[in-house]
Fold:
Amino acid sequence: MKEAIYPGSFDPVTYGHLDIIHRAASIFDELTVSVLNNVEKTPLFSVQERVKILEEATKDLPNVKVESFSGLLIDHAAEKGIHVSVRGLRAITDFEYELQIAQTNKLLSNGKLDTIFLTTSLEYAYLSSSSVKEIASFNGDISKCVPPFVAKLIYEKYGHRV
Ligand code: ADP
Structure:
């Protein structure tokens, strides 16, 4: 069985992430979307909230499951016996950062964890969780960025009426 893991902050999940999830789920037999509990970042949504949101957003995909982890991706992947990490590339600006993570993971895992990149679908190339949060904080329109139930939750966090 071909398995992969898609790690990320997903704070919150956007249509860009969901596009990568749908495409990766059609390539691999099983895809684990894993929410990183990054203690250095102050997230808008807790890890538990992000897991719940992702579960709801991927409920129509039977071969996708959602988890969370803290610490190193290579340890989390090794525990699960997964050898492929999926990441998304939007623009050249993502490339340097993603290349560095991919090579570090390969080295630290003694070659056991490889990274596969899916390039963004053009309509989502502009999308990032941080821009969605910035727009929503000013009560701007995020309907093209995230599913309706996610938009509602984001506006609520910023105290905007929906
Ligand atoms: P991280 O904090 O690890 O960067 P993110 O949740 O921001 O986590 O992103 C997780 C992965 O999804 C990264 O590989 C990122 O490049 C990718 N990604 C984010 N937004 C998009 C998008 N609009 N299109 C394609 N890939 C994306």
The mean pLDDT is 95. Residues 92-108 form the longest helix (17 residues). Residues 17 and 66 are 13 Å apart (CA to CA). The pocket of adenosine-5'-diphosphate is lined by residues 8-10, 14, 16-17, 20, 87-88, 90, 94, 120, 124, 127-129 (CB under 6 Å).
